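Problem 3 from the worked examples.
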Amino acid sequence: MGAEFADIAYPIALKPRKQREKISFVLHMATESAQSQRLSYQKELILSRLEHFFGERIITDITIHHASKQQPKQFMFQKNLTETEKTYLSDMVSRVDDDTLRERLEAFSKTLFLSEKNKRT
C-alpha cells in the first residue's frame, strides 16, 4: 500500500465476496478516526496498488473501521503454512525495500493465502 498508508492503518480482516463466477475479497482496515477520511479518499489508489502487486484485482473493496493505533492482532487459522508456502510468499515480497511495508505485505499475503486454504476445508 505504501509507507504513507502503513503508518496510519493496518489490515484487520480479509473477507471473500462472490461476484457471479469470480471470487473477490473485501479488505477491512483499521485506522484512527482522524485518519479515516484521508484513507477513504485514497481507497482507489490502494486498490490499484494491490492490483498491481497481485497481478489482478482480487481485492475489490476496502472497508474502513475506526480503531486506536495499535499493532494488528494475530489471526487464528485452522491450518498453517508449509515451509514451501512460506518461502513462496517471502520471495513474492522480497523486492520491497521498505522493511515495515514488506513485513505488512508478507503478513497480508499470508492472511490471504490462509484464508483461501482454510476455506477449502
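Problem 4, a separate protein:
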Amino acid sequence: MGMRMLLCSVVVHEQTETVYTHLCCSYNMPRTTFILIIPGLLATVYGCSRGGWDGRPRGAVAAGSTQWSSYDSTTSPARSNSCWMSSLPDSRRIQDMTIPGTHDSGTYTADGGESGSTFSQCQSWHLRDQLQAGIHFFDIRVRRTSNAFAIHHGIAFQYVMFGHLLNYASNFLYDNPRETVFMLVREATDAQEGSHSFDDILTRYERGWGRILRWSATNTDTLGQLRGKIVIFTNMWGYFGNRIEDHYDTTPDEKITYIRQSLNNVNCGLGKHLTFTSSTRPYPQYAAWINNPRVHDFIKSKPRGTCLGFIAMDFPGANLVHDLIYRFNRN
C-alpha cells in the first residue's frame, strides 16, 4: 500500500486556520523515503520503517546541534521506531503500557528565531519526525484565534496550527493503521479577542476530523479499541488523576529527583500515569541536555517489562525513545 502525503502552504500568520492553511493536496506515494524539493521548502517524507533505520543521522547535523542516544537537538532522529504498537496484542490495556511522548510538542519551529526564543523551544524534531521516532503522546498548547487553535508556548506563537498537527498525525495513521496517537490539548495563553469558546472550536475540529478522533479514553480501553485513532483529552487531571509529575520550575538537579520518584511510584493497576521530564531552569534545552542522559540511565536500571506510563520529554534522543518502547512493552 502506498503512503499518503499532504502538502500545504507554509506561509503563515496567526489568524484563522482558513487563512493559515491556504491549499492542501493529498497524494498517494510509494512506501519509501525520499526528498521532495519545492521552492522555499525542503521536506523529507517517510514510509513505515518496520525494520528500523541504520542508526546514522538523517541529514547534516547543524552547527551547534548535538545528537546523542538520549538527547537530540538536530532536526532528524537517528532511528525510526514508528510501528512499535503494531506487534502488541489488541488486548493490551493503555494504562499498562509505557508510551514515549514530548512536552510542548509543537515548539520545534522556535529554532532560528522564527518564533519565541531559547526559552520557548522544547523540541527540534518536526511532529512528523517525532511520530517516526516512536513518540505517540503529544502535549499540545494552544491559543484560541477566532475559530481555530494556534500552537503556542505561552505568548509565543509557533507558526503552526492545530489542524496541521492533526493532518500530520492522520497521515501517519493512514500509513500505520495499527498505531495510536494521544494528544493532550490545553490553552497556553489568553485567547485572541472575539474568539469562539474552547469547546466550540473543538467541535469544529470534530466535524473536520471526526472519523479518526476519539475523545478521551477510560482505564479499561485496550490498544485494539484505539488503533488508528487520535485520542484527544483536554482535562489532564481528569484523565490522569493525581498520577502526574509536573514540577517544571526546577533546576535539573531538583527535577531528576522528582522524575525518579515519579517513575518509582508508577502503579499501572491504579490508572494511567504521566511524567514530565522537562524543566525550565535555566532553560528547557539545557535542562534536557543535563537530565535526558540521567533519565536514560535510570530507566535502564528498571526491570524489563515494568510499566512506566506516559513520559513527556524535551529534546529526546532516538535511542532513549527506543529503550522506553522495547524494554517496557513486551509482546
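Solution to problem 4. Confidence is low (pLDDT under 50) at residues 1-16, 18-63, 111-116. The chain has nine helices and 14 strands.
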